[in-house]
Amino acid sequence: MRTLEEINDKIRHKKAVVCTVEELKDRVAESSVAKVAKQVDVIATGTFEPMESTGATINLGHTDPPIKIRQCWLDGVPAYAGLGAVDLYIGATAMADDVGTGEVDGELRPRSTIQRGGGHVIEDLIAGKPVQLRARGQVTDCYPRASFETTIARDTINQFYLFNPRNLYQNFIVGVNGGDRPLFTYLGPLYPQLANAVYSNPGAISPLFNDPDLELVGIGTRIFLGGGIGYVAWEGTQHFPLQKRLPNRTPIGPAATLSLIGDAKQMDARWVRGCYFQNYGPSLMLGVGVPFPVLQEAVVERCAVRDKEIVAPVVDFSIPRRVRPTFGLVSYAQLKSGRITIEGRTVRAAPLASIALSRQVAKELKGWIEAGTFTLTEPVASIPRDRAFLPQDSWGAQITLDS
Question: Which of 19, 72, 142, 303 is catalytic?
Fold first, then answer.
């Protein structure tokens, strides 16, 4: 129907017709796939959800005298220093050490009471706030300094970029608790006797539900990442494209994932927010938007998928085993209604993802494209579609799914 270069030429001349994926779905419902495919050039998708396999690479620049850092803390949160002398990596789920004190609301408190981790440090750096650094060095002839303390900020460090091993789950699970005590999980609190259900994916507006076979997204795809420009770097960890799928090709549980990279100095803290899950630990909420070029009618057909046409498995977290039982599959339309039915019981359901901010990510990306400031890229390689290992949750528990 059209080529990527033709679409980019229209973008540069501010003539491209761009829809958010939600607008696209409404257009198709009112018209037809064929008509909409002729009218629309680009579809903007977005999500804003917890993505704990996120982290930042930081290069501090050399001190005088130089130091070879081997232990480091940023605002009391440990950063990995097993790289070059002043290269660090801080993960979103790194927890503040339970030693010393820290400032909370203007008061000094024991660090064990501070609900803060790597995600909060990353957010603060992106926001331009100062961060305290404390480092210990390995003394060598070329790196004679033994320790170093200072304050760093986004504009005083050399490199600062997000490099995230696993973002953009194509689908995920719904967590419930069939036991007799509250459970505190990466989905938040799950209350006993099936008192609540929590899901993390925003459903049919989420990027990879609209490209189920990864035909448009690949290594090198330019994306919206944390309010700046990022790229797909590789397949994500726990990438499982061979998940069982519905006839519309959408997966029935955890499936594809992507590894992402982007310059954090260009990001906006509005779209990168540290968070904390009670009795579980810190994480990070991240906004990611993916544009899809309408190269043929099939692109629109896939993006027309609705919440009632995609499903997720309901998993019981009360079973502390590698294989957890499920209560079958529910549609995202059911989840978004706020109530699902499990074994004849009505259970409250709520999302971890912000549906409103997911929509806003897509709108922001749409605005960039319409303004001619964001063009699309051709992937340099495809994401593998033949990974055969079983999906795992963050505890390493294998998930079995009902057919």
Answer: 142
